[in-house]
Give the backbone structure.
Amino acid sequence: MTATAIGPGGGLIVPPGHGRTLTTAAQHVTFKVTGEHTRTASTFEVVVPPGFDVGAHAHGHSEELFYVLEGELDVLAFEPLVRTRDSWREWESASGQRAVRATPGTLILVPPGCPHAFANPTGAPVRMLFQASPPPDHERYFEELMDILNSAGPGGQVDHEAIERLRIRYDIDQITPLRHDAGVRAEPRAPHAANAVTPERAATP
C-alpha cells in the first residue's frame, strides 16, 4: 500500500515505511506529513543514533511535540536558572525540574520560547514521532541541516558555525552545541532518579 490522499475533503493515509527519508550518519528523518498536506504541523519519524545530542535550543514562534516510540532519550523542556553554554545536562529550573529519561510512550510538548533538548546516551537507536508547527519551516530546516551533516563525511567534523547560521534563519536559538558520538554509555541510565517524564516536569515552570 502506498501513501494515499483520500480526495477532496478527505484525509491522508501513510503506511509504515512510506514517506521521503533524509539520512546521514547523525540522523534519519522520514517526512510523513508536510505543508503540502496541512496548515497545522509537519510530522516526521526520526531515528536518533547512539551519541546524538541535538543541543539545548528554543524557538521564538514554533511549537513542537515529541513522542518516543522505541528506545530511551535524555530530555528536558523548561527554562533553567542559568543557561550554561557548554552542556544542558545539569540544568535545573526554578521549580526543581531536571533532565529526565524518556521511555517509550513519553510525550514532550514544547511551546514557543521554551528551551528543550534531547540526547541518546544509550547504545541503541531511538525512534520517535516529531511534529513542528507551523509548516513548512522545519521541513526546509531538515533538508539544509542534512546537507551540512553530509558534507562532514564519515568521521568528519560537523560545521557548527554553518548550523548556527542555519538555525538563526529558521527561528532557532541554539544554546548548547549539537554533538554526535558524545557520552554514549554501554548501559542506559537516567541522568537523575526519575525514570519517566511527568506532564509537570515536561512543561515550562
Q: What stands out?
A: The two ends are 44 Å apart (CA to CA). The first helix runs from residue 137 to 152. Confidence is low (pLDDT under 50) at residues 184-205. The helical segments are 137-152, 160-169, 199-202.
